[in-house]
């Protein structure tokens, strides 16, 4: 059965964090933008743009670093620490310079050891950090310290609409620290948005995302039985899990969540949800998208892996414009990702692709005084700045 397990010295660092904060190059549809490479990185994913040329990043080997841009000189990559994982952790800076890191699932659930490996590829670590865990780190600490066990919470908060026989599954993927000291976590396997109180480890469910009826896309290759095939015929209706990969806080203060979309990963079926701050136990329902505290903000995306917010709107990052499954199955051109600006309703065009044709498997996006992207997610990559 196919499924997705969406699995300096200390003083200088402290000042930098407290201060405000040969990969793809591209231009948008009208040639107004390019991407400038700021610093080479290894399989980057996590990103938090602090402003004033300072950006937090994470890499495939578990390193988390501060990239400091310098005039007329190469950027300086300051390694802050390491969190050994089999996938780059998410990262977000909270109040008082505290850095939060989030590890996902260490692999597919016991019920499915042959799940697609896109978001759960293993790179063995000698002493792996605990999976599905929120950590915090401060300048001067030798290593990040665990704050909350997400999977332990999900064991008692199962997904009521689970489609894969594992309702307590957990793969926390997206992270954003709030100004009040709490942290939002989007769980790709739990299909929900959680709020964590780091001081106590308390966790509450903000919203649960419901599955959506989609149709198997045309053009997928044949898959042999030993690899989980055959796939259902094109056009077959399937109730597909949302796979909540990403979360950000908009300029309006609302919380936004993006979907990857589970099997069959039909292009154009990933949604962005807008949730009222302080909400608990809301439902994000694709059949009633304007009802309740969780409302659909935008639709028509493919395999969203990150969101960011800026004064112009919400930025949605697609891993592959042909879907994660298209990439997994080797479809030609499936390495091409996309970065889209979603502006407020009433503005035209509402959705605009910023750097078409050149982003390859991007890992993350964030916005401060500039728009930053990291990627490719696998292999040699870089921190890049939109200009």
From TrEMBL:
InterPro entries assigned to the protein according to its UniProt record, in alphabetical order: ScyD/ScyE-like
Taxonomic superkingdom: Bacteria
Record NCBIfam families: ScyE_fam
Protein name as annotated: Uncharacterized protein
Organism name: Nocardioides simplex
